[in-house]
Design a protein that fits this description.
CATH topology: Rossmann fold
Largest sheet: 7 strands, mixed
Low-confidence stretches: 204-208
Distance between the termini: 21 Å
Order of helices and strands: HHEHEHEEHEHHEE
Number of strands: 7
Number of domains: 1
Mean pLDDT: 88
Number of helices: 7
Strand content: 15-25%
CATH class: Alpha Beta
């Protein structure tokens, strides 16, 4: 059956209360910063209230794209308070409104698991990355040891619409080469996965990318 859930409306309604929640996640979100390249521009997909985007904009030319206009308004306010500039664009992660090879890095923090079509989104990430550019994903997931606490948390996130996935498989299928995968946080229930676009296209790996 087609997915008829109105994600744009959902995140528009969530925007006002999301900023305090995002602040609590900052120690985990900030994991993405150490993987940024020396030069931009960098794209953040799903910047939410703009904490990470404002931090990145102090170092590199930055762009934020979000499905929700209300979230972009929150990010604009955050950027103004920080005294930094970044371009803000309303758009869909599965149909990014940017030319191919536009960015040196694309960052998603706790956004990838909220995208229903993860494979399509990563193909778009690969498309807009310049050769040698990096894709940096920070998100929740089921750790390799599949400990009970982490699996229980994953089931809760899934009830709220999150999609637990094996990001390295999906990256490889999109033509990205995985550079790093690190588990962290309580019960190792979070991870950072970093891939890069090779100078020449690489064949993808088979597999669904879903983790259950």
């Amino acid at each position: 059956m087609p997915n008829t859930f109105d994600y744009r409306r959902f995140y528009d309604r969530l925007a006002r209360i999301y900023a305090p929640m995002a602040r609590l996640w900052w120690p985990y979100t900030a994991r993405a910063l150490s993987w940024l390249p020396a030069q931009g521009p960098v794209l953040e997909i799903g910047p939410g209230p703009g904490y990470l985007l404002a931090t990145m904009a102090r170092r590199l030319p930055a762009v934020g794209v979000d499905l929700s206009w209300a979230m972009l308004c929150q990010a604009r306010t955050r950027l103004a308070r920080a005294g930094v500039r970044a371009e803000l664009v309303q758009g869909d992660a599965c149909a990014l409104p940017f030319p191919s090879q536009s960015f040196q890095a694309v960052v998603l923090t706790f956004a990838f698991s909220a995208i229903p079509d993860g494979s399509r989104a990563l193909r778009e990430v690969a498309r807009v990355l310049a050769p040698g550019g990096r894709a940096v994903l920070v998100d929740a997931g089921i750790p390799d040891d599949r400990n009970p606490m982490a699996r229980g948390l994953a089931r809760i996130w899934e009830r709220f619409g999150a999609h637990m996935r094996d990001e390295p498989i999906l990256m490889a299928r999109a033509g990205l080469q995985v550079m790093a995968r690190e588990e962290f946080g309580p019960w190792r229930c979070m991870r950072v996965v970093v891939g890069h676009r090779p100078e020449r296209p690489s064949p993808g790996l088979a597999g669904t990318g879903d983790r259950r």
